[in-house]
Fold:
Amino acid sequence: GWNNLGIAATTAMIEEATGRKAFVTGKPSPVMMRSARKFLGLETSETTVIGDTMETDIQGGVQMGYKTILVLSGISSKDTLGHYAFKPDMIASSVDEIKFPLSWWEGK
Structure:
């Protein structure tokens, strides 16, 4: 699977060179998730995260109280779902399988 060792090494090098600690805002950072939601003008209850990685996309959405859809066409697989203490609200084989409007959008 994918890992971010290259990113961590680059960050450490820049921190050492500048003498400053990095402020990380990538997935699943609450800062990044909240900023994206606010930029779109959405409330928490109106926000759905669609992603292919449990450790970033789905974890970030769950932590923020957003609905989540795991797409199995990427990194995470159905076989590994039992390894996590959190679950997506929906699982789809691909983005094409997601039917819009989503069931939880009704009445909005």
Observations:
- The mean pLDDT is 90.
- The two ends are 38 Å apart (CA to CA).
